[in-house]
Design brief:
There is one protein chain. It contains 20 helices and no strands. The protein starts with 6 loop residues before the first helix and ends with a helix.
């Protein structure tokens, strides 16, 4: 009588093969990659010296450079097990991030923080790993510990500020980024802080953006100009906002955000024809931008052109399947 293997057992076997746990390179399909250039020479050497951590790390790096991160994972893992040093840990952690193994990255980096307490890179990457794993509190705790140990730690302040921004804890994000700005008044910090000022209608946005613009002797840097436009739009000083968005377009006509912001102002002013022209021009610059189609649809809906509105709402959903407002608009119009 034949022995019948269950579907659950088959699934387990396939999972083991896919993870390289069965030890058969032919089964998991890695041979097709590993024994062709530019990996073949290294693979032949590893066959002779399978426990050579340096060879494994070298092949892992080459695999990473050739966008074979999933295969590289196994070499990084084995190299780390054979020779757990700081350089290998940094590379292995990066691979864990790229391949979506956030929890494994947390475990690795947490052990490295304990093992190499004087290397700040492991603490920074641990916070990043917590964030990737969806544990924002864990990430904040790591940043706080870093700042407690060194109140002038710019990297920890800046990264914490960005995380708080993502968490929509705007007040704390501003306070943290202000500290980072005082530590290092560089462009990336200034823009992150100016963005929060602009979004909260804080007039400090103008002062900060002016300071950033003074560093741009070529007058080719569009971001501070755009953020000033956002500020004036939020405080409903539309003439100043539109003038600044027009200036952005002159500086960089491919930058789509000023067109969208200007179009929304025109929509709010019920100047639907000009708004439609602006949004349609934006969609020509970037035909996959769902917002351009969504706002075009809203304009057509406002002037009673149902079919045109539906067509543009559908296009918005085509380029962003999670566009809830567009989906709701389609249901609303179809029910009429």
């Amino acid at each position: 009588m034949k022995q019948i293997i269950s579907y659950a057992a088959l699934a387990t076997l396939f999972a083991m093969a896919g993870c390289g746990l069965m030890g058969d390179k032919t089964t998991n399909g890695f041979n097709e990659v590993l024994y062709k250039p530019p990996f073949k020479t290294l693979s032949d050497s590893i066959d002779k010296f399978p426990n050579d951590a340096v060879l494994l790390l070298r092949r892992a790096e080459r695999l990473s450079q050739n966008n074979q991160q999933d295969i590289a994972y196994y070499d990084y893992k084995k190299s780390w097990q054979l020779q757990p040093d700081e350089p290998t840990a940094i590379l292995y952690a990066s691979n864990l991030f790229i391949t979506g193994r956030s929890k494994d990255a947390v475990a690795l980096l947490d052990s490295c923080v304990q093992k190499y307490p004087n290397n700040p890179e492991f603490k920074r990457r641990l916070a990043e790993a917590y964030s990737h794993a969806g544990d924002s509190k864990g990430a904040i705790a790591v940043y706080d510990n870093m700042i407690k140990s060194d109140s002038a730690n710019y990297d920890a302040l800046y990264e914490k500020g960005l995380l708080l921004t993502q968490l929509k804890d705007t007040a704390q994000a501003i306070a943290t980024l202000e500290k980072a700005w005082r530590q290092q008044p560089i462009m990336q910090t200034g823009l992150a802080l100016a963005n929060l000022y602009a979004e909260t209608s804080n007039e400090r946005a103008i002062t900060l953006c002016d300071a950033l613009q003074k560093r741009d002797s070529a007058h080719a840097f569009v971001d501070p100009v755009f953020l000033k436009g956002v500020y004036y739009s939020n405080v409903k000083d539309y003439p100043k906002a539109v003038a600044l968005f027009d200036e952005c377009m002159r500086i960089d006509w491919k930058f789509i955000e000023p067109y969208l912001e200007k179009g929304i102002i025109l929509y709010e002013q019920k100047n639907y024809d000009e708004a439609i022209k602006t949004f349609q021009y934006a969609s020509k610059i970037n035909y996959t931008n769902a917002d351009a189609y969504y706002w075009t649809a809203r304009c057509y809906e406002a002037i009673g052109k149902k079919e045109e509105a539906l067509d543009y709402y559908y296009q918005a959903v085509t380029f962003d399947r999670n566009f809830t407002e567009a989906k709701e608009a389609i249901k609303r119009l179809k029910s009429k």
